[in-house]
Amino acid sequence: MCNIRLFIVLISFSIFGLFGQDPTDPVIAFKLPPAAKKITWAEYKKEKAKYTVKRVPLDFKSLYQVGGILIGIEEGKFPLSYPVTLERIQEAGVELLRKKETMISNEIVKINNIRILIRKTQAVDAYNYHFYSDFKNFSNVSGIVEFKKKDKQQGDLIFDQIVKSIRMN
Fold it and tell me: Where is the signal peptide, in residue numbers (predicted)?
């Protein structure tokens, strides 16, 4: 089922060339890098074993890899009682920092008329960049881009491209 969903998204990219639309949630659209390869949890964990800080994304449904850069995306609808504010997520992130991590930034910005929390941390040998969109019609998208120091320039670019491509209808 997941492969069918990815196939539909990839066809949307190639036909329209703009934004991939999640067919299960018409509220959210975003673009992944063309070189992004869908990977399994096993492949993800194998790549993460090379990192000093072994943070694993919490239940991301979609995992991708571009070279040594790992991408996790979670999107969908949430029940009426679930949505919390970006400010609460922002505060909780500071408390969840691990001893081996340094906060680079933890700010709420507005991109494409959408409020997005961007949290960037640096561990001993890697960077973890998270994003969380505000809720619209009880839907949101969140994700992580993780990469080693040697891939920082490309990781920064990929993160910025994904975040700047987010659209909510």
Answer: 1-20
